[in-house]
């Protein structure tokens, strides 16, 4: 199709590729009303991925790009960019991501509020370093607690430093990281 045809003000792509007026109307009603292509008439499900977004679209949309896909897209394009990539990755509250050596640079994570985390933990969960520790969401509070218990710690968080490195010291709990004590009478 010549560029001047496509650039014409009255050009109709759907008609040009063979949609009937009725099919065009049904597609417009569906997409404009539902705000998603999912379930659109005359669109094959195997083509949905081309239209995937950061979040599910509209009231009925279920599909969205994974956190990992955002990171992989950034990693793939980074070698061709002279500066940094500025990208916010939208994450559902239950999302987790692990370290990936493929990503260079920093990203900001947007995640639903986690009211059970301290400000320090929230900051740790949102910080990404440009060096080797890059590209990983900090483990969740529950994951950090389970890891601490597996290492022999009590699994409770130190109120001073926020680490899960408390050990029993008589009737007290002592933090192996900062040395603070709690629960002493």
What does this structure look like?
- The protein is α+β, with helices and mostly antiparallel strands and about 180 residues long.
- Strands 3-4-5 form a 3-stranded antiparallel beta sheet, with no helix packed on it. Strands 1-2 form a two-stranded parallel ribbon.
- It is built from 6 helices and 5 strands; from the N terminus they run ααααββααβββ.
- It is elongated.
- A hairpin with a 5-residue loop joins strand 4 and strand 5 (about 180).
Which range best describes the helical content: under 10%, 10-25%, 25-40%, 40-55%, 55-70% or over 70%? 25-40%
In the sheet with the most strands, the strands line up as: 3-4-5
The oligomeric status of these chains comes to single chain
- Strand content range: 5-15%
Q: Tell me, rounded to a whole number, the average pLDDT.
A: 75
Structural class, please?
alpha+beta
The low-confidence runs, each spanning 5 or more residues with pLDDT under 50, are 98-105, 126-136
- Number of helical segments? 6
Strand count: 5
How is the biggest beta sheet arranged? 3 strands, antiparallel
Q: Per the principal axes of the C-alpha atoms, what is the gross shape?
A: elongated
Distance between the termini: 83 Å
**Cα-atom radius of gyration:** 25 Å
Strand/helix succession = HHHHEEHHEEE
